[in-house]
Task: inverse folding
């Protein structure tokens, strides 16, 4: 579940963001936290596990008129390879429709893979509907 960032989540957000290679230095990490909080079009969101109810991931975005720029995404290593990044992107997409999610140099590969997976799922749904004679 996608949660809006609150100051109460600062320590856990910083802990999760510290997994990002560029943000290992504490002063760099604090600068990035300040950057997100300095303008309305920059947002941090946290991801709460449905199983454990723990906050296990963080995503940072910059909101434009027609797009959402995925700047950072970081998942607790214990929860990686479970499809959480795709779930987070889907939740962002629902929240910001009709805006398109784009990636930075660091996140564009993830966004592209997610788009491909989404396209593949849509094709499969159309195929199943065609087989059943549905429109």
Result:
């Amino acid at each position: 579940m996608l949660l809006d960032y609150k100051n109460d989540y600062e320590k856990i957000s910083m802990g999760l963001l510290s997994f990002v290679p560029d943000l290992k230095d504490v002063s760099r990490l604090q600068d990035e936290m300040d950057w997100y909080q300095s303008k309305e079009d920059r947002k941090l969101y946290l991801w709460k596990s449905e199983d454990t109810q723990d906050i296990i991931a963080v995503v940072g975005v910059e909101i434009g008129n027609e797009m959402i720029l995925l700047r950072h995404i970081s998942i607790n290593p214990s929860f990686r390879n479970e499809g959480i990044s795709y779930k987070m992107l889907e939740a962002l997409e629902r929240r910001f429709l009709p805006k398109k999610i784009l990636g930075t140099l660091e996140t564009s590969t993830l966004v592209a893979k997610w788009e491909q997976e989404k396209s593949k799922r849509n094709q499969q749904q159309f195929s199943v509907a065609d087989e059943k004679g549905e429109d």
User: Anything to note?
Assistant: The mean pLDDT is 92. The radius of gyration is 16 Å.
